[in-house]
Amino acid sequence: MADLVIRNLSVSAGKVKLVCEANFSLAQGELVALLGPNGAGKTSLLRSALGLVKRATGDALLDGTDSEKLSSMQRARRVAYLPQQRPLAWPNTVRDVVALGRFAYGAAPGRLSQADSVAVERAIRLCDLTALVDRHTDTLSGGELARVHCARAFAADAPLLVADEPVAALDPRHQYRVMDIIRHYVDGGGGALVVLHDIALAARYATRMVWMKHGHIIADGTPDETLTEDRLAEVYGVRARVSGRSVEIEGTI
C-alpha cells in the first residue's frame, strides 16, 4: 500500500521557520483535510513533503523513498499534485489537458498509448467531463475548470493525491461537486490530502483533520476527536458553535 510519511520535518526561509518538526502520514483509503489560517505553513509543508522544496530537517518518504531523491516522473507515478496556482500555458481542449496527466508515463497529447487513452477516458468520466472534452479551457467556468484539473491529476493513476485548496473561489455547489469527486477517488482505493478553508466542508468529507498554526501541527485525528469550539478559537481566533460535524461561526474573539 502506497503512503506518504513525514517525520520531524522542518522548513526554513532564511532564519524564519515555516514548518516546525511536523509529523503525519497519508495512506490509501484516507481523505485527510489540512487546516489552518493563512500563513500557517500548509503549502510549505505540502511542497516539502513532496520533495519540491528542500527541507531543513526531518524525513519525507513517498512509498518508502525519500521524496527529494525522486525524479519528477517517479514522483508523479506515486502522487498526483494539484498546487494552488494551476496556470495553463495555452487554451487547449479539455481532453488534451487531461492527457497531460500521463506525463509520468512519457505520454503527451497526440501520442497516447492504449493504456494512456484508457486512463484519460476513465478520468474524464470520473470528473463528469464527457460533454466538455472538445471545449477549449478558456471557455469553461471556474467549476468546470476545477474538474478538468482534477481529471488531469487522476489520469496519472497515482495511488495518492495532494491538493492545495482545490475548491478555492468556487460556489458551494461546485465545492461539493469537486469534493464528491475526491471522495469517490478515495472510496476507490486512493488516498487524498486536501488543504481546505471551509471547516464544515472538511468535517463532512474528511476521515482525518490535521490542524496547523504558526508552522506547527497542533492536532491530528478524526473530526469527532479534533473538531471542537476550543480548537477553532485556538487556531482561527473565532467563536463557533460545534454540534457533531456541524459548524456555525459566530464571530471573532
From TrEMBL:
InterPro entries linked to this entry: AAA+_ATPase, ABC_transporter-like_ATP-bd, P-loop_NTPase
Signal peptide bounds: none
Alphabetized UniProt keyword annotations: ATP-binding, Nucleotide-binding, Translocase, Transport
Q: Name one GO molecular function term.
A: ATP hydrolysis activity
Q: Which domain of life is it from?
A: Bacteria
Q: Which residues form the ABC transporter domain?
A: 4-239
Q: According to its UniProt entry, what is the function of this protein?
A: Part of the ABC transporter complex HmuTUV involved in hemin import. Responsible for energy coupling to the transport system.
Tell me what this protein is called. Iron compound ABC transporter ATP-binding protein
